[in-house]
Amino acid sequence: xxxxxxxxxxxxxxxxxxxxxxxxxxxxxxxxxxxxxxxxxxxxxxxxxxxxxxxxxxxxxxxxxxxxxxxxxxxxxxxxxxxxxxxxxxxxxxxxxxxxxxxxxxxxxxxxxxxxxxxxxxxxxxxxxxxxxxxxxxxxxxxxxxxxxxxxxxxxxxxxxxxxxxxxxxxxxxxxxxxxxxxxxxxxxxxxxxxxxxxxxxxxxxxxxxxxxxxxxxxxxxxxxxxxxxxxxxxxxxxxxxxxxxxxxxxxxxxxxxxxxxxxxxxxxxxxxxxx
Length: 276
Fold this sequence. Notes:
The protein has 276 residues and is α/β, with parallel strands linked by helices. It is 26% helix and 26% strand. This is Sugar/nucleoside kinase (Ribokinase family).
């Protein structure tokens, strides 16, 4: 399996705490880890863990913090293609707190708001294989990759976590929109052949031109929900050759394995055992 993933990479500073702090409160963390984050980056780690070839088209740059993210991604088998390798500004940083008792998390992130425009056409030669996964955080990149995928007949999956202005132009190029329960599109815009909605531990809903239904999520005791949706999207992209319902079920199983493990990469060895 070869999956091209285009979108956001961050540096995640993850602190595990007994309780999430209230405003003005200071708490002592139980553990701290630093890892690459972001929807596309976490999905790429998932594809690589499952045995696929993961090519991540993103923006990291030359800042020392970017080196941390790049090293983490490459250590877990992701090939990183950086659109702005000489950019000196720091990459987006996410401050994450994870509650030890149930894995619930809070995230404060700047995302890609300050990343300048760049010639995305220079990256489209990487587009090929079984599936393309986009998160829409770098609009020009998402559009260029989606158009190239459409030319080549490579299916395009959109990780639709939140509405972004680029989606008006991007959605007509998308084959499958995998949406969070909080995703809201303007009326009449979300006309995609397949729409999937995930909602944490609730069953995953899907709708095609011919049918609709739900696929249950395995019941697990959550230890860490950080990036679980990203892992789901990575597993779904990796399962591109499976029938839709089986593909959703597989992604549900992989995401459930992720939330059962505490830590941003603790789940990877278990997911490696789930290769199909």
